[in-house]
Amino acid sequence: MPASGVVRPDFDAELRGGLAVVGGMFPPTITPDLVSFMRVSYASPPIDDLLRERRIGRADVTIEGHGGDPVELSVLTPPGHGSRSGPRPAVVYAHSGGLMFGDRFSGIDLVLDWVDQLGAVLVTVDYRLAPEFPDPYGREDMYAALKWTAVHAEDHGIRPDRIMVAGASAGGGLAAGMALAARDRSGPELCGQVLDYPMLDDRCVSPSTHQFDGIGVWDRVSNETGWAALLGPARGTADVSPYAAPSRAADLAGLPPAFIDVGAAEIFRDEAIAYADGIWRAGGDAELHVWSGAFHACDIFAPHTAVGQSMIRTRNAWVEKILAD
Q1: Per-residue pLDDT tens digits for 79-106
Q2: Domain count for the chain
């Protein structure tokens, strides 16, 4: 039993060895005074060489986000796009970063496989960050990008009937919010949603939330910091929109098929399981994977490990199936 007296699942032995390395870039506990540090530490490295190596095309576009303000996104296209026969499926992607840091290329390595191996067009978005831009800026920026993708599908060689939303961590919550908004607003028809260890519930009351304090990646205090930055005094009250915190949604019927994965040894375990269960109870389609011993985002921070590799392979197989239908 941990010294604190809290009983929790242990980390996978291979992953445990990498936690010390991860902690140098991503402290387990993030408080408001660390947000500036995280915006430097978690900033994506230059992307051009990686895209060139994979022969992925890139077009940067400025769209109108929430309130008509400019928002940047990048359209990443597979090798030979334009010379291929017919339009390709597309993924609108929301990056990780606790709603407070990161950029449209943060953690992008994992989803570039969908571009150069599966032939999808990836639209990745610089949604605006809290606390400078509280709710609804981030989620409405993402929804604006989804609508833009559908409207401009022909211009970018995209199949309008094969658009999927995806995201990791905070981005997973934003992807779930996009799917809910598209359903409720009669928006773009989605073929799927990928929610990687998603940040779904501002109330922060699940057992798994309280099992991980000061340990792992993205602990209870970090989560409260992120939600408070986004929602301010509304956090935990009845005034929170389900598009911001999808666990608040009373009805999960009518959503596109979902892939949900999460670590057994992280705070988002219980809310991810509950969200999948809510989809099933509403008669929907959800594939849920709970990875034994996995800490939060271990496939980003430790992709070389057996657990990280299994997560990536399993997710890619589901995406390939959904985009090909």
Answers
A1: 988 655 689 999 999 999 999 999 999 9
A2: 1
DSSP 8-state class, residue 55 = T
Structural domain range at position 233 = 13-324
Is 188 a member of any domain? yes
Q: How far apart are CA 90 and CA 114, in angstroms?
A: 9
Does the global pTM surpass 0.90?
yes
Quickly count helices (H) and strands (E) in the chain. 12, 8
At residue 192, φ and ψ (nearest 5 deg) are: 180, 170
Q: Of the candidates 138, 61, 136, which has an alpha carbon nearest to the alpha carbon of residue 100?
A: 138
pLDDT tens for each residue of 203-219: 999 999 999 999 999 99
* Backbone φ, ψ for residue 91 (5° rounding): -130, 125
Cα(173)–Cα(171) distance, rounded to whole angstroms?
5
Tokens of 212: 């991980």
